[in-house]
């Protein structure tokens, strides 16, 4: 989709991203920026991750996109807030989940699409924010599940066999 970003209305959402060292995560923020489409309408775009030390927009001006641009990415639904996620504080700009309706209302954006776009990574990009943070990893544990359930079934057959044998061979 093509259009332009409203950089002055970006929202930072607390998050983690894979670090340089395997198993270590970077703490920082996802940069959610309203995007005005050429064909009309507004959609929120998760432009990517910035480390905590680059929270201020002035510290990452090389990553701001001004003017007409195109965005590619994956559509995602708004994230529901679970009981272990703190409530957002829009006045202080503290967000802990990607709540499309809440962010749109706090920024006074009006009618916004009910989804957001997770921006793709840009090859060779050295500036922040960095897109492509969404990792689609569907585990294939079917063999493990099969062994588990067939093992449980075999145990149940064994327990029933012992029960039935005792019932049949009990003195009357």
TrEMBL record:
* Predominant subcellular localization, coarse grouping: membrane
- Which residue ranges run through the membrane? 145-165
**Pfam families reported for this sequence:** SURF1
Q: Where does it reside?
A: Cell membrane; Membrane
Which InterPro entries does the entry link to? Surf1/Shy1, Surf1/Surf4
Give the way it sits in the membrane. Answer: Multi-pass membrane protein
Keyword Cell wall biogenesis/degradation annotated: no
Q: Does the keyword Amino-acid biosynthesis apply?
A: no
UniProtKB keywords: Cell membrane, Membrane, Transmembrane, Transmembrane helix
Domain of life of the source: Bacteria
PANTHER family cross-referenced by the UniProt entry: SURFEIT LOCUS PROTEIN (PTHR23427), SURFEIT LOCUS PROTEIN 1 (PTHR23427:SF2)
Q: Which family, according to UniProt? A: Belongs to the SURF1 family.
Q: What is this protein called?
A: SURF1-like protein
Natural source organism: Methylobacterium persicinum
